[in-house]
Amino acid sequence: MKLSFLLEDDSGHVFEGDVDLKLKRSTAKPPSTKHNVPRSAHSASAEHPRTPTDALHRLHQKSIFKIEREFQAVEEELGKIDCNFPKPSLAKALERAKFLTRHGERGSYRWIQKYPPGS
Questions:
Q1: Assigned fold of 48-113
Q2: pTM of the model
């Protein structure tokens, strides 16, 4: 790859140059099939959840939200699958979860599923 450049520093000096770059090694990753998998199927896989959102999907698949759960109960269920996310991240994921509905008042929210898993 040939690269040409023109630089000017703060004092007004102008520098010009050409560089011929050679490929040292390829850093390209093989194409991933992960993005072709539906979200619900991906979350239910044997892969460990990496984000609070994926972990909540996993709990939903296990029907944890069949009954109302408080924040602390959700944290305990996540702990059972070795997921320990920061409280703000988990709170935001609960807020954004389309399959959950929130009941209660600030400081004492409870979450329950809107529909059963797989529907």
A1: Arc Repressor Mutant, subunit A (1.10.10)
A2: 0.60
